[in-house]
Design brief:
The structure is a homodimer of 155-residue chains. Chain A is an alpha+beta fold and 155 residues long. Helix content of chain A is 37%, strand content 19%. In chain A, the strands form two sheets. A two-stranded antiparallel ribbon of chain A has the order 1-2. In chain A, strand 1 and strand 2 form a beta hairpin. The interface between A and B is large, with 88 and 88 residues. Strand 3 of chain A pairs antiparallel with strand 6 of chain B, so a sheet runs across the interface. The structure holds a DNA duplex (30 and 30 nucleotides).
DNA sequence: CCCATTAAGTCTTGAAATAAGACTGAGTCA
DNA sequence: TGACTCAGTCTTATTTCAAGACTTAATGGG
């Protein structure tokens, strides 16, 4: 299977990765969550090939994760802002960051903390069950075919 | 910057991606969560190059996400099992799946559901604050430098 | 006017990674 | 014996990436 055909898969995870699973894409979003918006700023902070950055930004805009907004007309200049859909990924990224920090703690602790402005505390993202509200024990997850399943493979 | 040097970054997200950010890696883990354990099964279900699969499995074992366990001696045969560290990624993957399903619902609904065996219901993974217990509004997350920060870049 | 600078890309080139599938080696099964 | 299983390894052609030079349009200073 080719990576480029991932979006055609039935599997939800495959379709998610078709959007944000390319190299650098999640790091571009990390910068976006840190309020970076302009091409050269993304490029300078990530140090990635400009060609790749161009491609990733275009892809994220096409998938509605970022919006390209003109901030001046002459010469035309644009910035990239998160959409609501893009913002929805932030808690997940925090969860991923918490996962690494839990397993590969540096000597001094995590380099970045996240404050929950609602309650004012630095927090970890705790995954809970939408039905019973309890924190999810990873061993208590049982995947099974849903209504949109075609045959046997899915996710 | 080269992708291979990602693990040396201070940024937690970069270090997470150095472990699970390669092409196909998360799909390998999806299969592992669906109880797939053997090389040929992974290969047949994913349809990826065997060379790439070999590399990804080795990488995941090296990083303690999977364990390679002999299940017979002659000829030697192995299977790959999730470690606790690997299991810790399952709620995050469910969250990612929920994210796509929310934004790109198929006509029939999601192809895969997840049951929370503790309460018996199909659930979505809701990210909540470890401090106040509330569901996290993505706009209420304020990243800031933590104790392990070196200069300005992080995550 | 002339030159430097900024910003958002595009282009080029050589180096890596991936896709597809053939091949290998040890052992089992009939 | 010959077909088959399983877990890889190898080969080749194609794609993608890394690094940085180049482009275009405008602004600011001397």
């Amino acid at each position: 299977m080719r990576w480029r055909d991932l979006g055609d898969e039935e599997c939800s995870l495959a379709r998610a990765l078709a959007v944000v699973g390319d190299r650098w894409t999640l790091l571009v979003l990390r910068e976006a969550f840190l309020r970076v918006r302009r091409f050269d700023d993304f490029q300078a902070r990530l140090g990635i090939a400009r060609r790749v950055l161009t491609e990733r930004l275009k892809h994220l805009v096409e998938h509605g994760v970022l919006r390209k907004v003109a901030y001046q007309d002459a010469p035309p200049r644009f910035e990239y802002r998160l959409t609501d859909k893009g913002l929805g990924l932030h808690p997940l990224l925090v969860g991923l960051v918490n996962w690494v920090d839990a397993h590969y703690a540096g000597k001094n602790g995590p380099p970045l903390l996240h404050r929950h402005v609602t309650c004012g505390h630095d927090f970890r993202s705790v995954m809970t069950c939408s039905e019973c509200g309890e924190a999810i024990d990873p061993r208590a997850i049982a995947p099974h075919a849903g209504p949109g399943a075609r045959k046997k493979k899915a996710s």
